[in-house]
Amino acid sequence: MASFQSIMKKYLIILVIILNFQILLALYEDQVGKFDWKRSFIGKVKYAHFDSGKIIVGTEENTIACLNSRNGNIIWRQLLEDPREHQLQLLHSDRDLLSISGTINNWFVRTWDHHTGTLLSEWTISSDKSIPSEFTVVKGILIHIFPNLNSHLDVVTYNLDENNQKNTIKVPAPWITDTSNCVLTQSYYICISKNDISGQLYYVDILSESHNVHVKTLHSILGDVTDLIEILPFDDILPAFLLSSNGQASVVHVDKDTVNRKIYKVMPNAITNHNGEKPLIYQLEPAVHPDKLVQIRVKDYVTCQDEMAIELDYPIGLGVPTIVATATKNTLTDILLSTTDNAFMLVRLSDGKIMWTREEALSNIVTVEFFELPVSELDASIENEFKASSSSVFSMLSHRLNTQAKQLSTLIFGGQLMSKNSLVRDEFGLHKLIVVATKVGKVFAIDTLSGSIVWSYRLPNVEPFSILGEDKILLFAQRTARYAPLPAECILLAKDKYTGKGVMFQFDPITGYSKRGVKKLDHRIAQAILLPYEDDQHLKPVLIISSTNEVYLHPSCAVAEVYKQASRLYTYSFDEIGTFKGFSFIHSTKDKLRMTPSWELQLQPAKLVAVKTKHPNERVHSQGRVLPDRSVYYKYVNPNLIAVATISDDLVHKHVLSVYLIDGVTGLILYATSHKRCKGPVHLVHSENWIVYSYFNERFRRTEFAAAELYEGHVQSNSSVFSSYAVSLLPHVQSQSYILPASPVSMTVTLTERGITNKFLLVGLSNGGVIEIPWLLLQPRLNDLPCGPEESCIPYMPEIPLPSEAVINYNQTIGRVKGIEVAPARLESTSHVLVYGLDLFYTKVAPSKTFDMLKEDFDYMMIILVLTGLVVASYLTKYLAAKKALKQMWK
Amino acid sequence: MYSPFFLIPLALSLTAHAETSVEEESDENNRYNIEGRIFPLSDYQTTQTNWQANTKVHVNGGEHLGFVKRDGSFVVHNLPAGSYVVEVFNPEYTFEPARVEINSKGKFRARKVNHIRTSEVIVVPYPLRMKALGKTRYFQVREQWRITDLLFNPMVMMMVLPLLFIMVLPKMMNDPDTKKEMEQIQNMAKFELPEMSDMVSNFLASSTMPSEKTEKTQGMASKKNAKTRKRIDK
């Protein structure tokens, strides 16, 4: 017992040390919102209802939310299960809000309070059939339909008012051939047998006693139509659907055994509104006016007379809209539009003004890149002075005088104010531009200071690549804004949605301007690399490898430049099943680069789960670690190192996690380890001479972190240039593992300008917090060395403490963290952090505190008072001393 | 601190059971629900009117979710038999997680989560009763300038104490009692340090005899007068 208590005491002491150490890193309460911001999103809207001045929405991100109809702000939001597996199936707004979400055969039925978003009730439906099914609510009865093709309908009804009483019905329906030719409208299930005029229309009322199937020919409803006919759902007070052909649709009502077609035609995107004075139909059309894009046509529901056509101030750059919901209150009609690029907006009639727009594309970011801003015009003109080769002395003098006069004027007339509003670089690089590419193919530039969108650009019909199950669009900074007269340049690579071939988009990240626009490539992209060499225009070429191992360069004129370096250029590729291939470019010619396979590595049958290289901009400041005996233990810093994690199934150990460190040039495995009975999710971080990875230990049912650090030893083999071929000794590896009392969903490491500052791991947790863990806590302790405060070493403890002060987003929970991106500021102590997921959160972190900046609570008043006090006191004493001396003289 | 001593033998027998229950999770057909209730702090309702909607129940790091009803109760549906960590998250409050084990027969057991000693069992009641441990402190308290901080600064103390000796001690000497004491001390110290004591006694003599002092000052005044007179003479 005594030993137990002593252990506890030891832990307590360690904990105290660490808490003292960590408390220094927390935020002050008055710093909230000073340099961080958060934007909340909901995802692409699937269902929307108006509800007394509020909008209830259900989205494809399996989220339900309540928005303020005045400004589009979120009143409450509930994140349901993971949208990759669960999808929202129904959102029904009645007395309470009813949502059904789930997988193919398991659903959660939940009712919510409209005002607060509090859960009222929850129950589940599960079925043993794995076929797509539909839900609807008619008069307090929840109907769940499984259409069995060419056979029957399995219908389960639940009486929502009477304790969810269950009733199972089987409706024979051999006429169902394709569920895409069927619609469910209220309690009617309606199908067409063929997509042309010879087809038949079948419908059945599920709630009727007899389940009589009614059959009508399409010809009897539509008359003579030669085009293809489609059946589309239509929301109306009566059971109704649309029969659409050639871009025109007819509204058809069914009621018992009668089928009524409205005499008029509408657009397939039409929607009805019954809560105004008289029922109306709204539909979107291309605008007649050349300056406007979209107009809303309003028709009378009964007579089909055109009431009005309102042209919208539809912004350029948004995708094609569809109407989601409408509502009329007094004389105002609100129309909700959802676009193909996931924007969600409210249009108010009758003037057609867009009240607000929510860019929901930002709820699904796939790639983030930070960009430095250009210098101000004035600074640029000073730079020009040295560049312009003006021969005359006088012109140079006048230029100099001119710029200095301008400098003076900005100094006097508040140049500071101007630079705050415009996108101009600041001294410390704290103001940057974040360019993000979203899954839907829209690119945004976001200001780090305010979080506002600077520009956006929609790339039509593109989709991200899938790398190890993760969506990724490639974004490379070819030229930063540092080279003043030349604009910054950036390249984006994605996949065409239809052909699968590459799409390239070259643009200026600061303005969003693109000279060439979207360029379609005639090959698939297998790999793309930003080369580290600059051409005479300071442009870094991008090397694209096609799926047939052809090599392309952008700009293509850089071939000669790259050829010079070809003997030092290597690349690697990997596929999902675990084959690594290394390539060299030694067989390139002056006008064509050619890849030559150099090594291959098979990791099968293991499944590849993570591949990480170091950040290309990372700098390692100190070459070694100073040991207590004053000797240096040199780090093994190999820039070509690839960290790989695989998981394989094992009969004895269930899952085995293996981690390899592979040299990308030679294919040499420098380190390999495995963890038995460990499974994913694996998050891997690779920096300097170390890696950290997280995994779930099935044996102890806990999440663990493992850290491995590589050292060359007490002598450095080559201090100037590193070569992968000069291997004399394998690096020494120190490793240690820890317990993380939380579940990580994303992990990254901070990055600073020169790498002097300590490293922090930023770990996104499942609870929506992002926590910072000092690398010092994870760094493997050397076995034979003492560890204590004198050695600036924290004694090993198995469980990593996660104090709430280390949560960088404090109480601002981030919905479904997907990734964390970091970028260095020009101030060594600071790095920018953007956390993305359903929400966006930006902040700055300073792992070693802001040692190069005065604290913001620095007491200027105090120091001024003290200084003036000292000056006054010294003069006073001087005077007094003189007086005294005089008196002495008189004595 | 809890007393783990008598629980350890019990724990050993139960963990064996726990380990096997994990192995038996193959029976997919039986689905179970974890139930529980969240007990807010006493000041909960006053600060957060809608805490139920902001509180989430995560099972196994968000694999399964539970939402909190108005009365604080929650149910996590559709779980196969196995071992689960139930965590309650609220932006303002911290809750302690619990591990719930459901065996293949549908028996429930809840215990405290201990990642280091995974075999240790401290049973907690099931259905779960999750109590807020306290308000989460995200922020560091900013240091405020206080006069006491300045005064107790070691540098200031080092400065102030000698100053005290210089300023106050001579004043104290004026006190007749201390004077006597001092004299006694001097008498005692006379033998050891004759020169010093002479000096001190001379000094004291000059300051302690008021009559002499006045005379002296008068003398000084007369000296001064003499000086001026001399100058006038010149």
Automatic annotation (TrEMBL), chain A:
Annotated Gene Ontology cellular component terms: EMC complex
Membrane topology note: Single-pass type I membrane protein
Assigned keywords, A-Z: Endoplasmic reticulum, Glycoprotein, Membrane, Signal, Transmembrane, Transmembrane helix
InterPro entries the record matches: Beta-prop_EMC1_1st, EMC1, EMC1_C, PQQ_b-propeller_rpt, Quinoprotein_ADH-like_sf, WD40/YVTN_repeat-like_dom_sf
Main location: endoplasmic reticulum
TM stretches of this protein: 12-28, 860-881
A UniProt-annotated Pfam family: EMC1_C
GO annotation terms (biological process): protein folding in endoplasmic reticulum
Domain ER membrane protein complex subunit 1 C-terminal stretches: 687-890
UniProt subcellular location: Endoplasmic reticulum membrane
Residue ranges occupied by any EMC1 first beta-propeller domain in the UniProt entry: 26-130, 150-360
Subunit comment: Component of the ER membrane protein complex (EMC).
Protein family membership: Belongs to the EMC1 family.
Record-given protein name: ER membrane protein complex subunit 1
UniProtKB/TrEMBL annotation, chain B:
Gene Ontology annotations for the cellular component aspect, listed alphabetically: EMC complex
InterPro entries: Beta_sandwich_EMC7, Carb-bd-like_fold, EMC7
Stretches the record annotates as Disordered: 204-234
Transmembrane segments: 150-170
GO molecular function: carbohydrate binding
Protein localization: Membrane
Comp. bias regions, Basic residues: 224-234
Record keywords: Membrane, Signal, Transmembrane, Transmembrane helix
Keyword flag Transcription regulation: no
Transmembrane helix as UniProt keyword: yes
Pfam families hit by this protein: EMC7_beta-sandw
Stretch forming the signal peptide: 1-18
Domain ER membrane protein complex subunit 7 beta-sandwich intervals: 48-158
Bilayer disposition of the protein: Single-pass membrane protein
Domain of life of the organism encoding this protein: Eukaryota
Family to which the UniProt record says this protein belongs: Belongs to the EMC7 family.
PANTHER family per record: ER MEMBRANE PROTEIN COMPLEX SUBUNIT 7
Protein name listed in UniProt: ER membrane protein complex subunit 7 beta-sandwich domain-containing protein
Organism: Callosobruchus maculatus (Southern cowpea weevil)
